[in-house]
Design a protein that fits this description.
Blueprint: H1 2-15, E1 17-25, E2 30-37, E3 42-49, E4 56-62, E5 68-73, E6 77-83, E7 88-97, E8 107-115, H2 122-129, H3 133-201
């Protein structure tokens, strides 16, 4: 049992996707964070903003096609979650506004992002499915294994795509080189024939 727990802990550390970020945002400023996510991956976020009298902060989460995944006007503290439909890049933007254009203090923003297995609540799954602790660990291990398999499959697909692109580029470069050599050979032949006729017309050669 002890070896099993150590193995589960090791697997968790290998594939945990958790990003904790803290930064300051000045009044009437906007800051965005971007991240790439694979297909069918659960993403959860938890944010908290420090108090700033008179300021309002607008939070939006969008994908690369500018679809709004989450939006909150007057954000101060909360959570959001979404599942990606395809491999995409999503963007999280915080924008503070100070009515009247006045000056105020910077807001401290804390953001915790979780992806994949780390984003799942296994306590809720255990309660819903009435799972024992060992069954919960096995479920988590199964999800982590599937995540690793998906990552390897994605890397393999990317490798095949890059290889195809490389081979296609190599073929095009080869054909372009052959075409360039033919053009140069044709141009050189034309120059020789032209100069020969010119010199014959000037009676410099027979």
């Amino acid at each position: 049992m002890q070896y099993f727990q150590v193995f589960v802990l090791f697997m968790t550390l290998c594939i945990t996707n958790l990003n904790a970020i803290m930064f300051h945002l000045s009044p009437n400023q906007k800051k965005c964070l971007r991240d790439e996510i694979h297909k069918d991956v659960l993403v959860t976020g938890e944010y908290e903003l420090s108090d700033a009298p008179g300021q309002k902060t607008h939070l939006t989460v969008t994908d690369s096609k500018e679809h709004i995944l989450y939006s909150k006007e007057g954000a101060s503290k909360g959570k959001f979650a979404f599942t990606t439909e395809e491999y995409d890049m999503f963007e999280i933007c915080f924008e503070t506004k100070m009515p009247g254009g006045g000056h105020g203090v910077d807001r401290e923003i804390s953001l915790i992002l979780k992806h994949g297995v780390e984003a799942k609540s296994y306590e809720d799954i255990a309660k819903a499915d009435k799972l024992k602790p060992l069954e919960v660990e096995l479920r988590k291990l199964e999800d982590m294994s599937q995540s690793i398999v998906d990552d390897f499959a994605y890397m393999r697909a990317r490798e095949e795509e890059m290889r195809d692109t490389n081979e296609s580029t190599h073929t095009r470069v080869m054909y372009f080189s052959i075409f360039s050599m033919c053009c140069l050979f044709g141009l050189a032949t034309w120059q020789v024939l032209y100069l020969r006729r010119y010199f014959k017309a000037k009676k410099l050669i027979e």
